[in-house]
């Protein structure tokens, strides 16, 4: 976690956002939207603050949010979740991941993730003393090979940690792969932690929470967050749902991480979770347009673009432009094109496969005019 000279190693997202600020480049690196979300949600937070909701809420979260989370799981996925015992509010999905991993993984336990993987997974598995095994997502569709998945999960596996829809590739795992993961978890008595923060940001495919599959609920913890769905990444309100037996262990750790989280933001996220269906289909449709604008721009600029099925992100290969080292390209990109992006290598272990070396992640959760400007500037790379 520290660099060789003893300094804190900044996350790739912080590093790239700092680069964008320093150079004035367009930030397609860190995934955060450049517009506010629904006014109902924002005004609910304002009202909560002016109404005096400014002291510690309960550690497990305010009842109004826990009920809204349970209702959301029932409404979208037909999952019956007990708000009192099967939901836990956290400081974003990040704390949810931390509390799940730190509570369930013992020194030496194996944790299997897909690769590329969201950077916090690697750091948290290391903090817990776990061994991180990965299953590569294979080009061009960034799907895991089932034989490789089978080989990675063994009796040493404590957790299978998946991210679906997937950051950074925008891939959605098909039902057969989710079924295999449940089967492997049973076979090897492993638990499943699933990070579904992009659950509402899919472009045509229905999101299938792995917890809805037969035999999954009892061994699965599902994580999500209000940040992506309501454009409130700075509020850090996330949650975990799952069986009470497992959530109790997660809460035992969570209480010593943050104790409690952002009281006035909790009723506001509850309002968001209760918005009509049209809101949820609307945000996905809007983001899909943005994906299309940026993907077309990247293709015009000479990148090979891999279709993103979900999330804030699209992956593009810089090799056709003559750039084989995406990490190097991303350091130069502000100067070359006035754009910041993130190399896929930042989501991989050091021995990353050669097929990933020239891949770049671009965020399209920005206003269309910003994406068009970025695309035009990237045209200078040729
Ligand atoms: N998981 C994934 C896959 C993410 O992309 C992110 C970041 N946006 C997080 C977790 C962290 O979410 P939060 O900001 O709610 O902590
Ligand atoms: N999840 C966002 C991303 O992948 C931002 C994460 C962060 O800043 N830690 O870009």
TrEMBL record:
<feature type="domain" description="Aminotransferase class I/classII large">
    <location>
        <begin position="25"/>
        <end position="370"/>
    </location>
</feature>
<dbReference type="GO" id="GO:0016212">
    <property type="term" value="F:kynurenine-oxoglutarate transaminase activity"/>
</dbReference>
<keyword id="KW-0032">Aminotransferase</keyword>
<dbReference type="GO" id="GO:0030170">
    <property type="term" value="F:pyridoxal phosphate binding"/>
</dbReference>
<keyword id="KW-0663">Pyridoxal phosphate</keyword>
<protein>
    <submittedName>
        <fullName>Aminotransferase class I/II-fold pyridoxal phosphate-dependent enzyme</fullName>
    </submittedName>
</protein>
<keyword id="KW-0808">Transferase</keyword>
<dbReference type="Pfam" id="PF00155">
    <property type="entry name" value="Aminotran_1_2"/>
</dbReference>
<dbReference type="InterPro" id="IPR015422">
    <property type="entry name" value="PyrdxlP-dep_Trfase_small"/>
</dbReference>
<dbReference type="InterPro" id="IPR004839">
    <property type="entry name" value="Aminotransferase_I/II_large"/>
</dbReference>
<dbReference type="InterPro" id="IPR051326">
    <property type="entry name" value="Kynurenine-oxoglutarate_AT"/>
</dbReference>
<dbReference type="GO" id="GO:0005737">
    <property type="term" value="C:cytoplasm"/>
</dbReference>
<dbReference type="InterPro" id="IPR015424">
    <property type="entry name" value="PyrdxlP-dep_Trfase"/>
</dbReference>
<dbReference type="InterPro" id="IPR015421">
    <property type="entry name" value="PyrdxlP-dep_Trfase_major"/>
</dbReference>
<comment type="similarity">
    <text>Belongs to the class-I pyridoxal-phosphate-dependent aminotransferase family.</text>
</comment>
